[in-house]
Amino acid sequence: MTNLPPPAEELRFLDAELRQLDARRAVLLRRREWLIHTLRATAAPTGWGPAGTGAVPPPRPEATGPGVQNVLLVLGGVLLTIAAIAFTLVSWGHMGITGRGLVLAALTLGALGAPLVLLRRGLRSTAEAVAGLGLALTSLDAYALYKVAFSGTDGLAYTAVASAVLAAAWAAYGMVTGALVPPAAGRPVAEDGSATNGVRRTLRLPLPLAVGTAHLPLLLWAIAVGAGAHTLTAVLLVTASGGTALALRTGLVPVRLVAVVGALSTGAVGVLAAGGLCWTAADPGEAARAAALLVFAAVIALLAGWFAPKADVGLGAALAAGLCVVAGAGGVLRVSVPGEWTVPGCLACALALLAVVRTPLPRPLRQGLMWASVTVQGYAVLWALPLCAGTLLGPVAGAERPWSGVPGDARDAVFTHMPWPPYASTVPLVLAALAVVFVVAERRAIQRPATAVGALVLGWAAVFVLPVVLELPYEAGLVAQGAVVLAALGYAEWARRPAAEASPLPLTALLLALVTSVHLAFLSLASEPATLGVLVALAALFGAAGFRPALGPLAAPAALGYAAALACAVGASAGWQPHHTALLVVAVPAVAALVAARLGGGSRTTVPVEGAGAAAGVLALSLAVPDLPTLALVLALCGVVAAGTALRSDRRPVGHAAAAMFLLATWVRLVAWDVTTPEAYTLPVTVPALVVGLLRRRREPTVSSWTAYGAGLAVTLLPSLLATWGDPHWTRPLLLGAASLAVTLAGARHRLQAPLLLGGGALALVALHELAPYVAQAVDALPRWVPPALAGVVLLVLGATYEQRLRDARRVREALGRLH
User: Which of 413, 480, 632, 692 could in theory staple to 407 by disulfide, Cβ–Cβ 3.0 to 4.6 A?
Assistant: First the structure.
């Protein structure tokens, strides 16, 4: 066994150990401080010695050797070029013709010959810098030659010739340097003209500079001779064709990049100029000339796409070619046919491009031409959009003045407050053609869901705007729009066939039917008989469609909405006040409740129908607000509908809404009667609440009395207590006291907490209210020292009997706890 020391001895032992540990820790901390100080003193950097002994490493260079070399060479070449320019422009006149010629010739030959020697010795960068100086000197030579020998000629023509000569000379110089300086043995030549391991085979600068300069002579010469706009455009396109050919044939990357940039820039300017000439031409001949230029640009683009090594380049080139062809054809059509046929003609050309699908052209070219056709089709849709939007939204603008009179035709009914879009007469034809294209695409399984929906929407739009375009009579326009609604509903039902269960077409067709029906309803507001007839027809049509399971979730609520609108129209036609019309609108929620009960909770149409009925009920209430008696009646009728809905087992919570509407109906009626007694508002809540609580406790005896009766009793007792304290009469206190006594006795009889405490508290407050005047009189009659003395006596008594009071309170709590 282990003998433990007494606690006092063990405590002394622990204290001694802790003191020893503290002393040892202090020694170690002092030693640690000395070591840190020593290390800091000996570790100071000296800047000398090898790494790891405090030596500071030398600073790293901020620039590489090749970088410094290139900067120096470029800077030197620029300075020499500036000096040469200054010499040519400033000091030229101080020397004779012989001296000037010898100086420039010597400088030029030296600058162009030095790179050959430098390349052989491997000084590539220096050779490039000196070659750049030499090329700049050749330009100065051309300028000097103009000043000496050709100063009387046209400056622009001389620039054109000089640029051509310089481009040829630079190209020859670049090729000569490559021929005279072969790469070292065993060093293959890269694509950019350099040896992959060592000496460069040729200079990089002369050939790209020659290609860039070669884009200028033809254009400058055309401007110099005063060529017209068509000739200048042709020159731009010819220049672009040359750059394109060079870009496709050369293997040098710098040359190819310059050629591509030059071809794209000149080609883009040429195409824009040709398009502007074509679409601003005043006669077909002028437009045809510009269109020929666009066709020439298209040929260039197609050839470039054909021989392009990358598929993306071919696709983009073919896209540009297709747009050029369509733009040219459209420009000719613009001056050859009436204005409304320009877009249809362009669309026809775009559709003709789709024939390339069956041609043996390379796949990128076919795809590019197809995308060009799609682009023009998209433009045609945007062109037709203003007419479609105006037709759809035009009747809404006239809704603020309903039944203003029958318009002359369908166009007057729609575009009374909106301008008629120009060239809109061919919009239905364009939309129909596009719909056919989408149908063909859908048949060939090209983006099938999207193309099918697009075909349906475009076909609907073509038929939708047709009455307005044809200026049909107003009644015929209404019939035509009604036929569109009927056809859309029929197609929505037909498209639900088993083979197309996952298709979006049924929903799309149903939405189009709804949109057309709303347009038709607004369109009918111009005439009272038309409004009533259209609303009846729409309510019946959508009501019949609502019985179809596929159409019910949208069609049935729409039918109820049109029924509510019909009720409002009937009331307005009969000259009723809005609150009288509300009584007719209440029939819609009743019908909705009956239909929902017939459908049952398992149908997808039930919830939408109930929502539409609730919306109609809100409409009826809003119409009845100006007249309080009618509002109370409408609230009661809506409560009846809600109570009937609550009879369904899956709609029990609606019973709360029914009770709330019944209560609101009672309160609104009391307000209409100018009743200010609070009990008239609270008792209609208390009595049903107590009855419900009694029935619930009979069914579930374990329910607390606070849950069953607390809310019902508080609704009446609390407002009545508040009214009692401000009531100078004796009737309310007497009745409230009697009621509180009855509630208290009932709670004591049945041992219920809520009635006992609420009734007893109310009874006590009523009694205090009755005794308050006498207490106040007694307090006024007593001396001022009596209340403090009484308070002190009460505190002493309470303190002396504190324990007894606690015991009594515990007994009361236990007694209340045994109550239910």
Answer: 413
